[in-house]
Amino acid sequence: MTSDGLHTDLSGADLAHVRGLIESIPASAVVIDKSDLVAFANRKALGLLSQPLQTVLGQPLAGVFGAFLRRVRTKGGPIEQIQFEMFYGTAWYVLQIFHLLTPDGSEPTEYVVITATDISARKRREFDFLEIAAGLEEATRIAQMGTFKIVWGPGQFEWSPHMYTLHGVSPDSYRPGFGSYSSLVHPDDRDYVTRRGEELARGEASANVEYRIVRPDGVVRWVRLDGRVLFDSDGASYASFGTCQDITESKRREEELRELLKRNAILYEALESSPNGVAVLTAESDGLAVLYVNVAFERLTQHNSFSLNAAGLRSLIPESEVESWGRIAQSIDQSVGGDFEAICLRRDASSFPARIEIAPVRDHPAQAASAFVVNLRDLTVEKQRAEIFLKSQKMEALGQLSGGVAHEINNLLQPVIALSDLGVNVLQNDPQKARQYFDVIGNSGRKAREVVRQVLTFARRDTPQLSSLNIVPLVVDSVDFAIKGLPPQIRVESKIEIEHAMALISATQVSQVVLNLLRNSSDAMNGVGHIDVALQRYVVESDAVIGDLAVGSWIKLIVQDHGCGIDSVTLSRVFEPFFTTKPVGRGTGLGLSVVYSIVGGWGGVIKLESEVDKGTSAVIYIPEQT
Amino acid sequence: MAHILLVEDSPEVSLSVREILSAAGHTVDEAATGKQGLERLKASKFDAIVSDIWMPEMDGISFLKEVRGAGNKIPIVVISGGAPNAPLSYTAPLASTFGANVVLYKPFEKEELLGALKSVL
User: Fold this and answer.
1) Chain A residues whose beta carbon lies within 8 Å of the beta carbon of residue B109
2) CATH tag, A12-118
3) Most CB within 10 Å of its CB: which of A229, A272, A520, A532?
4) Do the chains contact at B54 and A416, CB–CB below 8 Å?
């Protein structure tokens, strides 16, 4: 045995060479002889053992080496190429044992080399990972997450049970792998998932991928995969692990939110492009605050929400618009909608007529309004148009009236002129004929007077003095008088069923009403036939009898003809001034509208019932003074 | 002397025109509407027509159209007092357009009517 412990069956040069080799091993290395006594130790090993070479030579192995050797010997069997990791003292080591061969490598010598490498750092990482993994498992269990690990080299997949549930597959029939997983990914997302997977495999980035999967039963779900890369001690990526979560619900909510935002944007644009001014006011403790006004509102009022808030709503609708403010107050207090017309002020103090609609906005039907939508429409042009239209209507009406009056008067003047002329000639020879002429002349004059009176009544629209009168003799006299102006083939049958009935009326008006009604009836029958006139008392005892007649005593005047009747469309218009169906007859178109206005002035009601070809009956109800 | 068809809905006007014509020696047949007028025309032969414009059932313009449309060249004197929705200045030219030989405005003197008839007969 040499001084350094190695046996001398190696030549001096060989011995130095072996020593050099063992010294150059990057790990701690010791050489032991067949008696398990230390024959040599490199500097690293001496450092590990904290002893000088002289102390260890020829001694049994100590420290981690000793512990390792004991374990190897206990296990028995061949000791070639044994390697394992063990914890000793405060560190982890990987230990290897192998025979020292002769320099030419032909046969083993009696020596065995043991190496030890400190792997504490790597072990620590592994433990950390295990710890993380354990925590992760718990977390994922709670979060309904699946976890996975992929070892890239062999393409080995490890899935947690929830991964299977999530993908709708069973561990019995499904083996996770690149190919089998690809078939679970939605076809549209496959390329994307593959690309991101490759990035993960290269260790380029941690992946956070959202994509769709199609479960074997056809159900499509959204999942999010969070992957992390695992690096080995050399800094190379060797595996990935991470979580997988079903995010279908949150995707749906996200989509809904996106849709909602899109809709909001559309609604906003719609409001902005409305030709009407729109403002949204919120109900604050100290009144209404302007939240929003659209472009049209700004254009109309020259105000924006800031200037309006600063100046207050009264700068838009002046205090003097008492009625408008009443409606606004009602809308706010009772959370109800309202619409009204008002003269609004612009910021430059000019004014314009507007229609304002207020609608309450409620968060909940039972709650008071939290906001109000105000719709502002400029009525300037509309008002101008209406005025022009009204004027042109008046002109048209005037033309119609004058045409009608002219026609009536001209027709009545014709017999006056012609018969007075002829009458002079027949006065002596044919007094009977002269009398007939004078009758016709007189009747024509009276009819002309009536036409003029009607026009005046209508034109003046003044209310004559009404007085408390017994209507019965007035109706009787009026009928007698009217008959004189009717064609001779008209027969009037009167049925006066009351003797005394007081009403607030005017005698002239009673005669106008009776005359107009009888003349209409006569015209409806083309001047031939009979007219029924009836005067009755009508008592309303309960509201249910006739909708628009109040409880009380009424005087009922009926004028009924048996003429051509009036169709329902015409019937709805007969009370309009100047409305006439007589392109075929006479008439100013004022008759029934005069009746309507007179009866209305008495507080009465007029009803027309008509059936085509059967006749028409006009029924007038006049409140009786009791 | 002539046989004249008088088409006029107003009884008073009809009476006065009839009296003017008969006093001048003409014979008169009366109709109250254009429709009646057409019936009378079919039934007998007339030398001239005196017709109103604004009448029930068939107005004077339609009556004129019917008469002239049938190729009848009988002299026609139109007497018009205007209409509720059309002044004389409108109805008179209209009557001429549709074949009236003379248009008289009511109220007219008897000489005007007789003169007009004389000019067309």
Assistant:
1) 417-418, 421
2) 3.30.450.20
3) A520
4) no
